[in-house]
Amino acid sequence: MTTYAFGDLQGCYEELRLLLDHIEFDPALDKLCFTGDLVNRGPDSLKVLEYLYSLNESVVNVLGNHDFHLIALALTDRKLRSKDNSLSPILSSANKINLIEWLRHQPLFHMEKELDALIVHAGVHPSWSLEMVKKYAEEIQSIIRGNDASVFFKSMYSDDSWSSDLIGKKRFNAIVNSFTRMRYLNGLGECDFEEKDSPEKVDDLIPWYLYPNRKVKNDLIVFGHWSSLGYLYGHNVVCLDGGCVWGGELVAIDISKPDVPIRINSLKSK
């Protein structure tokens, strides 16, 4: 059995199938772990969800910010923006309920214990221990899987940065933001959710994985979300977001071999 991790798909179904063919994926033997953002902006978000849903226990996906946005659109009266048009086929699908229920029961983080690897969408806040990661993920998972999930999703959109003294909605949003939107922190430990460029172009902010005294250091952290980084391996982290939806590449790894990326060029670049 091989356990693979994949970067952000964002509706790039054809590239996913090409990469699965390349690794000779066998659903009876192999496991697929996705770093989130399965949907939005790409051409085939519905196909991506339907295919991964069909694979059942062969797949685990940690939720990304675009996945959260899709669930919010499905569970609330929030209006679609023009840049959400790629999500319309999911929201009008006859299989919508099953797909959204499957998605909102996916975790915020996943641990591959035998490989000492932790999979998240954006990162792990440097002040969090592994125990805190588990606790905060479970806190949010219990909310978004519950009967009152729509209440949370109606107030989800904010730029709250994590602080241990936060309570209520600000606390919930800060936890979600840390798991799904974080890239940089400033010198005061506050998340900056605006800057998306690569670190060599940014002087006044610190990438979360380079922040001093980061607590989760012994487990490999596998993440996506940061397309300007592309594939990156170092500091006991692996970034797998190759920006496939932007014409880059879809990147995966055999988690036991994080220094060997497996890549497929985006069909958009042809």
According to CATH, what is the topology?
Purple Acid Phosphatase, chain A, domain 2
Strand order in the largest sheet:
3-2-1-12-13
Overall body shape: globular
CATH architectural category? 4-Layer Sandwich
Which structural class should the secondary elements be placed in? Answer: alpha/beta
CATH class: Alpha Beta
Major β-sheet profile: 5 strands, mixed
Beta content: 15-25%
Distance between the termini: 34 Å
Note the run of SSEs as H and E: EHEHEHHHEEHHHEEEEEEEE
Return the average pLDDT rounded to an integer.
Answer: 96
Low-confidence stretches: none
Tell me the Rg in angstroms. 17 Å
CATH superfamily: Metallo-dependent phosphatases
Helix content: 25-40%
Count helical runs.
8
Question: What is the count of β-strands?
Answer: 13
Total domain count = 1
Assembly type: single chain
Task: Describe, in plain words, how this protein is organized in 3D.
There is one protein chain. The chain has 270 residues and is α/β, with parallel strands linked by helices. It has one domain (3-269): Metallo-dependent phosphatases (Purple Acid Phosphatase, chain A, domain 2, 4-Layer Sandwich), CATH 3.60.21. The protein has eight helices and 13 strands. The protein has helices spanning 13-22, 45-55, 65-75, 88-91, 96-104, 130-144, 149-154, 168-180; strands at 3-6, 31-34, 59-61, 110-112, 117-119, 184-185, 191-192, 206-207, 220-223, 232-234, 237-239, 249-254, 262-265. The strands form three sheets. The chain has a five-stranded mixed sheet, covered by helices on one side. The protein has a five-stranded mixed sheet with strand order 4-5-9-11-10, with no helix packed on it. Strands 7-6-8 form a three-stranded antiparallel sheet, with no helix packed on it. Helix 6 crosses helix 8. The longest helix is centred in the middle third of the chain and has 15 residues, at 130-144. It is globular and about 45 Å long. It starts with a strand and ends in a 5-residue tail after the last strand.
